[in-house]
Write a structure and sequence with these properties.
Number of strands: 12
Low-confidence stretches: none
Number of domains: 2
Strand order of the largest sheet: 6-9-10-3-11-12
CATH architecture of the largest domain: Up-down Bundle
Strand content: 5-15%
Helix content: 55-70%
Distance between the termini: 55 Å
CATH superfamily of the largest domain: ABC transporter type 1, transmembrane domain
Radius of gyration: 34 Å
CATH class of the largest domain: Mainly Alpha
Largest sheet: 6 strands, mixed
Shape: elongated
Length: about 575
């Protein structure tokens, strides 16, 4: 789904006019709404006929046929309501699926620098906003937009049956009601923004407290944190109370105005009936029709007031839309087979204006199957440089070429089999060990088992009851040492047999056994693929064909004996 609609802030009426854009089956819903509203005239008409004609003439057979006709109309109306509700629910689910998928797609394709400006909790809070948008754009709000024009139909029937006096009274009451709702809407919007701010503060506090629970206990901060939470909770509860109170006012006022309209119709219509200008049947019909006329206005009032929630949800989706895409998803991918040549031509990069440049007109050329090491001791920005070579950050100047192909001109969604990156801290996804090795693609099973064998994972996993089918992820893999986790991540990278391998201080988190195995693996891989590694390990530096240190945004070549 295209999220461009949410880029600009739009008002309530603009959102109402835009609803058909999100509803592909709007014609079906419109026809169902026409049928429902027309059939809803059956009861007032039957009631009028009973009072005015059937009771005075004792027409029992006519009454029977009227009842049969009314039951048929009622059943048909019920069927149409069920169909409309089914269509609306289906479109609502489709809307949520498409918007949520588009948001996650934007996350996965965005520039890493933009994504890391906010924590994971903030991003999860934004995706929850889709539920509020679903309720408005694909839920009852669309039914309201379809039902609202039929209020004129009921008003016309009331005019025909009761005269202009009844119409003037009902219309005036509805207008006064909407004016009052306008003032409530403004107050609700202010309080809703305040509530959102308080909720964010409370949520951030809880994330901070739970994430640092060990530190809190270690320095005995429990009482201080509890007092702080108590103050935040008190302010949040006060804000919640104000929002709930004001949010319920449209319902309470709607009930009151419904009674006032009913009483007014009885008073005005009764006066006309006494004067002989209206029959009792017409009065009864006008009483029912006045309720049907006012019902869409009550729904409109609730949606208008709670549109402030939609505005907040749209602002959260807008934050996702404004994330820059790292590459055009429609751009061509790297060729299936590459030699592994890397050329870095005059690149520059800094995180923020005024800060020191990580790379300043930096140039580097790496031949296929060459092993290059970036000496981390005394260097700053080696991790960032690897990320720049991998295309994770946008360059201020210059370009990175893979086999002569500019990375900025290709799609970054499919580097598998060409370039693999392994970071300092390995991450396992929720699933089995086998799922992590194959990245949930069973077609890579044999290659994954071979890669796992190279890193001697068979011996480790054979001690577990489920072996490769052991569940990991969601912090359930903490029984694995960091060395084992790194070995799994390395095996995952080698499963596709990459031509370029980017390694960022991989052995720093390894135990001695895993590190010795990693040294052996590097010796095997050297000359088989292009390796660029940031490391401070003397043994790995001795293996390198060329060693560089990153100083003041420039790469300076050095000899192995200069590193120690």
């Amino acid at each position: 789904m295209d999220l461009s609609y949410f880029k600009e802030e739009k008002g309530f009426m603009h959102d109402l006019r835009a609803l058909p854009m999100f509803m592909r089956s709007s014609l079906d819903l419109f026809l169902a709404s026409v049928g429902i509203n027309v059939l809803s005239l059956a009861l007032p008409i039957v009631l009028m006929q009973v009072y005015d004609r059937i009771v005075p003439t004792h027409a029992t057979s006519t009454l029977l046929w009227l009842v049969i006709g009314f039951v048929c109309a009622l059943m048909l109306e019920s069927v149409l309501r069920i169909c409309r509700s089914t269509i609306t629910n289906w479109m609502s689910a489709r809307f949520e699926h498409s918007v949520a998928h588009a948001c996650v797609s934007r996350w996965l394709n965005c520039v890493l620098e933009d994504f890391e400006r906010d924590g994971a909790g903030v991003h999860l809070d934004r995706i929850r906003a889709v539920n509020s948008l679903r309720t408005f754009y694909a839920g009852q709000a669309f039914q309201l937009m379809l039902d609202l024009p039929f209020a004129l139909l009921f008003l016309a029937v009331i005019w025909f049956l009761g005269g202009w006096q009844v119409v003037v009274y009902i219309s005036g009451a509805a207008c006064v009601f909407m004016v009052i709702i306008g003032f409530i809407r403004e107050r609700y919007g202010e309080n809703r923004l305040k509530q959102k701010t308080m909720a964010d503060r409370r949520y951030n506090f809880l994330v901070e407290a739970l994430g640092g629970i060990h530190t809190i206990k270690a320095i005995t901060l429990e009482e201080s944190m509890l007092r702080r939470h108590e103050r935040l909770e008190a302010e949040a509860v006060k804000s919640d109370y104000d929002v709930i109170f004001i949010g319920n006012l449209p319902v309470s006022l709607g009930n009151m105005f419904s009674q006032l309209i009913l009483f007014g119709v009885l008073f005005v219509g009764g006066s006309l009936a006494i004067q002989g200008h209206m029959t009792l049947g017409s009065l009864a019909a006008c009483t029912l029709l006045s309720g049907r006329f006012f019902q869409p206005f009550r729904s409109l009032a609730s949606f208008w007031v709670r549109h402030a929630d939609v505005q907040i949800a749209k602002s959260q989706i807008r934050d996702i839309v404004e994330l820059r895409e790292e590459s055009d998803p429609g751009a061509p991918c790297l060729p299936a087979e590459i030699d592994g040549r890397i050329e870095v031509e005059g690149i520059s990069f800094q995180y923020d204006e005024g800060t020191q440049k990580i790379a300043d007109d930096l140039t580097l050329k790496i031949e296929p199957n060459e092993m290059i090491c970036l000496h981390t001791h005394g260097s700053r920005g080696t991790t960032t440089l690897l990320n720049l070579i991998y295309g994770l950050y946008p360059l201020s100047e210059g370009k990175v070429l893979i086999d002569g192909i500019d990375l900025s001109q290709i799609c970054h969604n499919d580097f598998k089999g060409r370039i693999e990156y392994v970071g300092q801290q390995g991450t396992l996804f929720n699933g089995t060990v086998f799922d992590n090795l194959t990245l949930f693609n069973p077609a890579h099973r044999d290659a994954a088992i071979d890669a796992a064998g190279l890193l001697q994972l068979d011996d480790v996993l054979s001690e577990l009851p489920l072996g490769y089918e052991t569940q990991v992820g969601n912090r359930l893999y903490e029984f694995f040492s960091t060395g084992i986790i790194q070995r799994i991540c390395l095996a995952r990278a080698l499963t596709i047999r990459p031509r370029i391998l980017l390694l960022d201080k991989v052995n720093d988190a390894m135990d001695s056994d895993s590190e010795q195995l990693f040294f052996w693996l590097l010796e095997k891989l050297k000359g088989q693929c292009t390796i660029v590694m940031a490391t401070g390990s003397p043994k790995i530096l001795e293996m390198a064909d060329t060693i560089y240190t990153l100083t003041d945004g420039k790469l300076v070549e050095m000899e192995a004996d200069q590193c120690f």
